[in-house]
Amino acid sequence: MDVGCEAHHGQVVLVNRKQAAIDAGQPSWADLPATNPECWVVNKTTFFTGVPCKYGHVAPRERGRNKTGGRCKACEKDWQAGEKDKASIARHRAAKRGAVPPWYNETHMAAEEAIFAEAKRLEAVTGEKHDVDHIIPLQGVNVCGWHVPWNLRAITASENRAKGNRYDPDDISSVYSFKR
């Protein structure tokens, strides 16, 4: 019988993974590894505990580096759904790297969110995934840029992946075509 003992919000609970998978309408989830460490052993990218995440989702979780693993797949979908959230998350990551200038204000935030909205619009029109790119990378090899609207642009995801952490000095003029 597939019953395991899991810690959930400080309590030990018995979990019937198979029943949880059936209740979620996805019986195949019960075939996934039960824990993050098992995930690594069998070289899978997701595991299923049958225990709700802290937001109440009963869904597989991404394999993670720590004992508990990564975010649940349902949380990941929720996170990817909000474009305004993407802008604030990008701003938060940039701030942690020291790439948000002290004079960054609400006007800059609105312009940044408009660029994220443009990427979403282009994705809907073309059917191709679009990312918001830092023209001058935040962590480039020879140069580091700011997380400011005039250093952001909406480009296809494939172009962004090909560009990586590099910048083209000939393209630098487009950065300064905007005014603070």
What does this structure look like?
With 180 residues, this protein is α+β, with helices and mostly antiparallel strands. It has 2 domains: 3-78, no CATH class; 83-177, no CATH class. It has 6 helices and 6 strands. It has helices at residues 17-23, 36-41, 73-81, 83-96, 106-126, 157-163, and strands at residues 3-8, 11-16, 46-47, 61-62, 130-134, 152-156. The strands form 3 sheets. It has a two-stranded antiparallel sheet with strand order 1-2. A two-stranded antiparallel sheet has the order 3-4. Strands 5-6 form a two-stranded antiparallel sheet. A hairpin with a 2-residue loop joins strand 1 (3-8) and strand 2. Helix 4 crosses helix 5. Residues 8-14 and 175-180 have low confidence and may be disordered.
Which key features would you list for this structure?
single chain; alpha+beta; 2 domains; two-stranded antiparallel sheet; 6 helices; 36% helix
